[in-house]
Design brief:
The chain is built from four helices and seven strands. The protein has one domain. A hairpin with a 6-residue loop joins strand 5 and strand 6. A four-stranded antiparallel sheet has the order 4-5-6-7, with no helix packed on it. It has a three-stranded mixed sheet with strand order 1-3-2, covered by helices on one side. With 156 residues, the protein is an alpha+beta fold. The structure holds zinc ion (2 copies). The site of one zinc ion (ZN) has 8 residues, from loops. One zinc ion (ZN) binds next to helix 2 and helix 3.
């Protein structure tokens, strides 16, 4: 499938690497060499979705979530072109873990009110009690990576 994707997207580099990732700076997709499972094909199509859509950066967690949704939509189109089908449940599971992650970050650590992020920073402010807290910078596709978010929200 890598070769087919290279044909469709000659300006994007596909390189074997540690894990699935899209690097907008280098316009490069990395993928683990072991490609036996359907899941890994889907993950590769998802990364390619980011690449095709030209996703580079985002200002807020919510914007990132929207890009993740868009990348899956594009991945489904690519799959169709290649005669494949991505399991819808898999997509929803990936997006759900993203939604949970967003929910955790946006919930006030002090009074549990759901809040919105300030633009251009990794800070949130509570509508209710006006507490402010900082979260770690977000990254593409972190939801289905195994690495657990270690940082707790920090009050500022
Ligand atoms: Zn609060
Ligand atoms: Zn993604």
């Amino acid at each position: 499938m890598i070769n087919e994707l290279k044909k469709i997207l000659p300006d994007i580099k596909f390189l074997p690497g540690e894990r699935f990732a899209w690097s907008p700076g280098e316009r490069q997709i990395t993928y683990p060499k072991d490609q036996e499972h359907d899941n890994s094909q889907w993950a590769l199509l998802h990364e390619t979705g980011h690449a095709v859509l030209g996703h580079t950066n985002y200002k807020t967690d919510l914007e990132l979530l929207k890009m993740e949704v868009a990348a899956w939509e594009k991945a489904k189109e690519l799959a169709k072109d290649l005669g494949l089908k991505i399991n819808e449940e898999h997509i929803q599971l990936c997006l759900d873990s993203y939604r949970d992650w967003l929910h955790r970050r946006s919930t006030c650590p002090s009074c549990a009110t759901s809040s919105i992020q300030n633009d251009l920073s990794n800070t949130y402010q509570c509508f209710n009690c006006h507490a402010r807290w900082q979260v770690s910078p977000s990254r593409f596709c972190r939801a289905y990576r195994t690495r657990k978010e270690s940082q707790e929200p920090v009050f500022i």
